[in-house]
Write a structure and sequence with these properties.
The structure is a homodimer.
Chain A lengths: L15 H15 L7 E2 L1 H7 L4 H13 L3 E3 L4 E3 L4 H22 L5 H19 L3 H17 L4 H28 L3 H18 L2 H29 L7
Antiparallel strand pairs in A: 1-3, 2-3
The structure holds a DNA duplex.
DNA sequence: TTTATACTACTTGTATACAAGTATACTTAT
DNA sequence: ATAAGTATACTTGTATACAAGTAGTATAAA
């Protein structure tokens, strides 16, 4: 099972099941485990040096995220297609637009302050070329916005989406930090725009910012495809 | 553990874990198990005459639905508050509005036909005073709409929402069939309106229909509160 | 050569066992 | 009587065992 894709430090308090889920998710989304591969609980348990119980837990989680399909014999890897990425951003747009409508009716001072802090963190992360930390703060940025309206079921939708998003962003950012570091400036500007939109309650600017964000990711998506090709066959997993 | 709230026939092919999840969900949403109750895996296993494994699975599912909270010692029942019901309908509105925008750009003939069939089924269910069958078809109606656009992540959100909705509708319809049978006519009309809106691509009518649907549920919600009071203390669960 | 049967090696779902940790109650010392 | 420590009876998470079922292969019959 060798080297881990998911940051170990993010797993400090996690159970074995969580570790397996996070690592497996990364391997699937990165393409290290190819679509179509059939995963065996027993083999995974052996690979990760744990018993079947945490592996089962992990597979259930990944199935709920639709990156694997639980069938009668074995769990088949589905992975993320171009369509999936598009769909994820559909949902993000859907959620964040809804959230924005609520936000503009609230006192947004604390939220803006909190977001500014996260943005500063992102800047530092870039300065020190820490892709993982940058990704963490990027995800946190949007999570902070979403949670600010205190809506349990919207939060739930976010929670369901988050792990896949996080992994995807993590992989994208790692690659871009190596190859397209100037992109990060644009991402930062875009987040600053988002904060402004919230501050002023300017819906148009917010939508623009979200779309820009999506365009950025579209670009990432191409890079990610190439990454998939790169890693293809590195570890055929049986 | 005595009598079951969830229709046994819906569980024909379900695992023990699913059975526990469905039944537990019904008991929590109906108020038969009160908010604040701490559930023990061992006790539940004994109650349902299964081992801890399926119970654990069930609790994980219910936690992801936010009707229980998994804590260090025991799973505490959260249940559905008035706010939760409102939130669920927020999300439904969000999803179905998104779906509608896609639908109007498609060929809707097959969908309309399919929905008409489901609506006929609903009529028959009322005719024979079968609240469970009616609920099933009602949920199926909306699921059919949502799945018609073939959007994996929107379907995923629906899947996450569905179990709680289904239980809630089931309980509401059972009570209303006894006490307010004339309501069902209005529900049928409303669904017919929805089909028309899809057929003609009339967004306004669709929104109106959705809101009407929600108002119906608001009414249900009051009934449901009284039901909670009614069943309160029937089985104090320890 | 083709078809039917049985065997092997898997699979899943459930049950049970165990280690490690935590809250409650009960000492015991002050 | 009160504070500190210590049992104890729980809890969770993981490991392991087992029953039932399935796919594919090999063997036997036609």
């Amino acid at each position: 099972m060798s080297d881990l894709l998911y940051p170990i430090k993010w797993l400090s308090k996690a159970s074995a099941g969580d570790r397996v889920a996070h690592e497996l998710r990364m391997r699937i989304i990165s393409g290290k485990i190819e679509s179509g591969t059939v995963l065996s609980e027993n083999k995974l348990a052996a690979d990760f040096s744990v018993s079947r119980s945490p592996v089962r837990d992990a597979l259930k989680v990944l199935a709920s995220e639709r990156i694997i399909r639980l069938e009668r014999m074995g769990a088949v890897v589905v992975g993320l297609s171009k369509k999936d990425i598009q769909e994820i951003y559909d949902v993000r747009l859907l959620i964040e637009t809804f959230v924005f409508e609520r936000i503009v009716k609230m006192d947004r001072q604390d939220l803006v302050r909190e977001l500014s802090k996260v943005l500063e963190m992102m800047k530092i992360a870039i300065k020190y070329k820490d892709a993982d930390e940058f990704s963490y703060q990027d995800v946190l940025f949007h999570e902070t916005i979403i949670r600010s309206i205190d809506h349990g079921y919207v939060s739930m939708m976010w929670q369901n989406l988050k792990p896949v998003m996080e992994s995807f962003i993590l992989l994208s950012m790692r690659q871009r930090l190596d190859e397209d570091i100037e992109d990060f400036e644009r991402i930062l500007e875009n987040h600053a725009l988002y904060i402004e939109a919230i501050e002023t309650g300017d819906r148009k600017r917010m939508i623009a910012s979200l779309h820009q964000n999506f365009d950025d990711v579209q670009e990432v998506e191409d890079l990610w495809k190439s990454q998939q090709l790169m890693t293809k066959g590195v570890e055929p997993h049986d």
